[in-house]
Amino acid sequence: MTPEELAALARKAAENAYVPYSNFRVGAVVVAADGTVVTGANIENASYPASSCAEATAVNTAAAQGIRKIDTVAVACIDAGTVDLAYPCGRCRQIMAEFDTETIYVTAGEGTEIRRHTLDELLPHRFEL
Description:
Blueprint: H1 3-14, E1 26-32, E2 37-41, H2 54-64, E3 70-77, H3 90-98, E4 103-107, E5 115-118, H4 119-122
Helix pairs in contact: 2-3
């Protein structure tokens, strides 16, 4: 899939976000090594630590389906005015590292740039066994 197609899927996934507290909708798309595509959205909870980021939702859903190698994750925060506000948090970066994610695309709403990164760029010196 092209970066533009991935960004469009991530933006579409963000529309399903449950965000009654922040109103900050984020969607994510996981592309597994075998080509399987899984989407996720952020799900908030009044007990904030129980919330789940879109990236974590998508990666954990993929893992629950038996996927163990992820090639690409695309993240879109459709309520961010700039791509700078759409980057995955540290927890999500570590979750992506667990499944050897190679490429991460980050974007915001429709018409914003799509940035490509490697996991090494986003999480250098990460914890690995």
